[in-house]
Amino acid sequence: MGAPNELNLAALAKYSNDFLREVEANVEEGEWVKMCMQCGVCAGSCPFGPDWEHSPQKIFMMIRAGKRQEVLTSDSMWMCTSCYNCVVRCPRKLPITQIMHGLATYAHRLGLAPKMQPTYQWSLQFWDNCTRTGRVNELKLTLGLYFKEGFVAGVKKAWALRGIGFGLLRAKRLNPFELIRGHECKDKAGIHRMLKKAQEIEARRLKIPQFKTEG
Amino acid sequence: MPELVATEQTILVVGGGISGMTAALEAAECGKQVILVESSATLGGRTALLYRYFPKLCHPTCGLEINLRRIKASRNIRVYTLAEVTRIDGRSGDYTVSLKLTPRYVNASCTACGDCAKAVAATIPNPWNYGLDRITAAYLPHAMAYPQRFVIDPSIIGTPEADKAKAACRYGAVDLEMKEETLTLKAAAVIWATGWKPYDAAKIQPYGYGRFKNVITSVEFERLADPHGPTGGRIVRPSDGKEAKDVAFIQCAGSRDENHLRHCSRICCMASLKQTRFMREAFGEAAQSTIYYIDIRAIDRFEDFYKQVQADPHVRFIKSKVARIEEDRASADPVLHGVDTEGYLRYANRHDLAVLAIGMEPSVRGSAIPATLGEDSSGFLVPALDGAAIFGAGCATNALDVNRAVQSSTAAALRAIQVVNRSARAET
User: Fold this and answer.
1) Cβ–Cβ of B340/A45 closer than 8 Å?
2) CB contact, 8 Å: B82 with chain A?
3) N or C: where does chain A have the smaller number of CB atoms within 10 Å of the terminal CB?
């Protein structure tokens, strides 16, 4: 048994809303979380609802309950397809989609996002792919996804989808030489400068020393 | 007693529902001259269209009828029906008010015998049953109508149907030559009691009202339960006329929603709780009611009523705002989709009938009133700040139940009486 003072502190910690404050300060549109009245209409409206661990309304309650670890490691934010059904129906007009993406970004910044979550993987690859040259290289992106789970799995996947691949080739929608170098935007260095600047501004706004870009 | 004429000491009451009637009576019984103006063909307003009202489950034939008797007995009240206020000029103690009188096409000789209604074949959607059935175009609004005088609907004027009504009347009461009139009155004070209307349920797109036959509003359900209603008191499904023994009540349909009505309409929780009693009354042990709610707001002393309904094993409570309703094509059953927030359980519940506990909005927005008055963010009237003697009463000022509307109206009557007393003193 600790001293009464410690007990009080432990009780306080249990009911503190530190995490809500943290979300408000760091997550895009995070200041809306406290407005949720737990009606559940977002959860019921979500087309992906049955497939996630936590519905938006549950996530908001968990934030208010201070469940930091569970929220930031949840796969739910990564399941959002931005259909905006919840935003349209929310009786309090919470920008739910934006909050979910804000939470996803924050979880990634802290390195807490679920590493093997497919959407998370896809997001990282997409960002890396399009920022490298300023253009999306579709061939590299798809192949990157095919071979994500190893060489054999990748070959199998490519083989299974070969019909589509050849179809795209014939229709000149797929250029195999993209694999070697790929096309780039005119001012690649300019794009990189722009992105760097944006990251600096973002870091300044969020008062973080350095924006973490790797996953 | 001289013939009643409007003077500078008259109080004008706009709206003949429970609020307007109460305000008019309170002022008249204090000896003031009152003119009561109602835009429809009868007094009674929406209270007359209830089967019963909470918490004591009174029939309006009791509570409202008493007020009608008081009006009949009072020499100080003059009632104008089918009349609308178009203009208010002047200041406290000295208002000039313009009224537009719509023709009824039936004069005071009417005995309400009903012969005209038998002669006329044309029908109109029945406004007193929210359009759930049709009535002949010569009609008495409802059994409690005051004045007890028929109305010829303007849609048949100039047609042979109207002539049939005229020919059928033995008392010469049908007067097809009536024209719209305007009237100018003097008044010391105005009580604005134009009441509420149900929110347009079709605007709540995911609930399918208007698209799905078995999705109705709470005010329509009230008419179904009423023996004077379109089904003679049988609670049946609009799609096939089968008894609706398993009914879902959806709370906050339009209310507490930034996309619809910002405010809590206050009455809907109690209305649904009350309607579960109608279900038990109609179907006994076979009744099943399910209330979908965000939180039950049985305000004030109504908590007892809530507790009683909670104890009923035939009433189920699901803490959830229903996300959407889907119709089962074959059976026309409404299927409700959402998440039960107590345990985050996803459901797809089928019911016989879904009742939307529809929100209240003001019939006339504060800004639309022909005088300079304000409105709140929901359109309810807010008190004038410039010393005007135009006082809101009842649901024109806020979402209120019958009880609170009566309180609010009594307060408005007191304010108006004070204005009259002041101007009377100034003159003598």
Assistant:
1) no
2) no
3) N
